[in-house]
Amino acid sequence: xxxxxxxxxxxxxxxxxxxxxxxxxxxxxxxxxxxxxxxxxxxxxxxxxxxxxxxxxxxxxxxxxxxxxxxxxxxxxxxxxxxxxxxxxxxxxxxxxxxxxxxxxxxxxxxxxxxxxxxxxxxxxxxxxxxxxxxxxxxxxxxxxxxxxxxxxxxxxxxxxxxxxxxxxxxxxxxxxxxxxxxxxxxx
Length: 188
Description:
Blueprint: E1 2-5, E2 12-15, E3 18-21, E4 24-27, H1 32-37, E5 46-52, E6 58-64, E7 72-78, E8 80-87, E9 98-104, E10 110-113, E11 117-123, E12 128-134, E13 143-145, H2 169-172
Antiparallel strand pairs: 1-2, 2-10, 3-4, 5-12, 6-11, 6-13, 7-10, 7-12, 8-9, 8-11
């Protein structure tokens, strides 16, 4: 397993080893021991699985506020996505900065997003399945969204797909970050 740091402190790309032959392939998608050896101590408690039928489906920017904030380990098991992490931690040197990483069934990459980050993904193909682990249970009272096209964040979704994103009503009505009650604070 290879761990690749990104320009956002704490957001990591995890590249598992893939062993293949004429029959197909095998990969270990999660190992608590391997992550611990890389200095990543996370106790995951829930697995989530989503399906998106159409190319251009955008889900996010989602997060759970404290005290139920979640670390996420995201992978795409069918199709291709751009997985986006946005630093929502007030006082962070990377506050409101984002990265987009392609995850796919072919590249087997995973993205680790620590607490304090907003999360979204955009499907690059139809028939996409995304699976992710979280270290805190779903808490409806802490569930939040920030508007996917918040101009203070400035994500250009069109750089990845040449169509208007397909968005849920919830995500369309999400507040801007400056108007949200997001309670993340950077602690170095």
